[in-house]
Structure formats: structure tokens, C-alpha cells
């Protein structure tokens, strides 16, 4: 079996985890507990007092749509991974997966905020989430588009275009070939981006729901790790591009739009790391001042 198909099957197995967890979460009654009252999303248990949560129709729709979107994304990833090499088609499952995660997070925040009075730390979480969406969108576009670096050299008037996975010669043949040497930059870029997205979600949830100082400083650390991995990927990527053309005299090397978008993602990630650090310090300054903000 080809390595790419092994990765697709591995992704399918991993994708089953959030689908199963989502179904179990939707089918269990304890979503939020206030004193002795459980608020459920869909199903109430019979042993405790159980109430339907406020805004349940909206929350139900968002949570169910999120789980379904993730399931559709996993299925499409397997189908397209096995049958298609079109890069733009492969973008569709990623849109479903990211959209599903965003819908679930929005539904979760609405469910929580409906139970309590909105305070400024909830607004901090919403602002961080909105800014983080920009990083998510830019990162997806960067990883799935094809202009990372272009080089001009002395042996042809046509540039060589590199994306994260392939080399394309912009000449009469317009031929593109996969490059195995780019595997290390690929791992750093993709894993770094995933860690950055995880850091965003953890930061939003910690800012809105958690009042422990030690936990509040976890999201900036996660974000910084993701940013460092992405920048290490840049370094290895540029190094591999230059080394793969060591027999040519490179006259110009241009950063393409895809790399600029990924750099922008890193910049937003740096802002988010600073932002969540600020919100953690700001919230705990009030706690230390004996102001009960929770």
C-alpha cells in the first residue's frame, strides 16, 4: 500500500475519535451543572432535576451541525485522499473540519453565556476568537495554495515555482513533481499550524470559563510552540529549496503569496499569545485585588 494511502487511513481512524466523542456528548444529559440542576442539550437523565437549556434550539443546531460537519469532513478526506490529486478538491474537507470545530465552539460559548451574566472576560474570549478566525482562514489558504517560493535562474527565462509539496516548472511543459526532501518542512508547517489552532481554542475556553492562574498561561505557551514550529518549517523549507538548486545560479528568490499568508498567520499567532497573556494577567489582577469577577 502506498504511503499516502496509509496516511489517509490513519487520518480516518483518528477522525473517528471526535465523531464518537461528539455523538456521546450530544446523547448525555450533563452539559452544565448549576448547584443541583443539570442543563442538557438534547436528552435529560431521570435521576436528577434536569432542565432544557436557554437558547436550546440555537445551541442544538450549532452543536449538531458541528458534529455533522466534522463527520462529513472526515468522510470526504478519505474519499478524496484515495481518489483525487486535485489540490482544490482537497481543500473542501478541511473547510468542513474547521467549520465544524468553529460551530461547536460557538455553540458551547452560547450555552455557557446563556446561564450567566456576560462579563468583560467573556468579551475578551470573543475578541480572541474573532482574531483567531483570521489566523485559521489564512493558514488553510496558505497550506492549500501553490505559490510559496519562486526562483529565477541562469538556465531558463521561466521561473521554478514551489509549493509546500511540489516543484512546478513554468515552461512549455508546465510539469509538476513531488519532492520528498520537503517532508521535514511539511511536518513542521502542518503540525505547527494545528498546534496554533489548538492554542486558540484552549485560549478562548480558558479565558471565558477558567479562573486558575496556572491554566490561563497554558494557551500562550501552546501558541508560542506552534509559532516556533512554523518558523522552523520556513527555515528548513528555504534551505531545502536552495539546496535542491545547487547546480543552478539563482538570480532571484521571491516569497510567494502562500508563504506571505503563512507568515501573516504566525504574526496573528504572536498577537494572540500576547493577547491571552494580557487577559490572564488582567483577570488575575482583579482576583488578587479581592474583586470577585467570577
Q: Which regions contain 5 or more consecutive residues with pLDDT less than 50?
A: none
Strand content: 5-15%
Find the CATH topology of the largest domain: Butyryl-CoA Dehydrogenase, subunit A, domain 3
Number of beta-strand segments: 8
The helix-strand sequence is: HEEEHHHEEEEHHHEH
What is the annotated CATH architecture of the largest domain? Up-down Bundle
User: What composes the largest sheet?
Assistant: 5 strands, antiparallel
Provide the domain count: 2
Structure explained in plain terms:
- The protein is of the alpha+beta class.
- The protein has 2 domains: 1-116, no CATH class; 119-294, Butyryl-CoA Dehydrogenase, subunit A, domain 3, CATH 1.20.140.150.
- 67% of the residues lie in helices and 12% in strands.
- It has 8 helices and 8 strands, in the order αβββαααββββαααβα.
- It has helices at 3-27, 56-83, 87-115, 120-144, 183-209, 213-216, 218-244, 257-288, and strands at residues 32-34, 37-40, 50-52, 149-153, 156-162, 166-169, 176-178, 250-255.
- The strands form 2 sheets. The chain has a 5-stranded antiparallel beta sheet with strand order 7-6-5-4-8. The protein has a 3-stranded mixed beta sheet with strand order 1-2-3, with no helix packed on it.
- β5 and β6 form a beta hairpin.
- α3 runs antiparallel to α4 (120-144) and α5 (183-209) runs parallel beside α8 (257-288).
- It starts with a helix and ends in a 6-residue tail after the last helix.
- The model has no long low-confidence stretch (mean pLDDT 76).
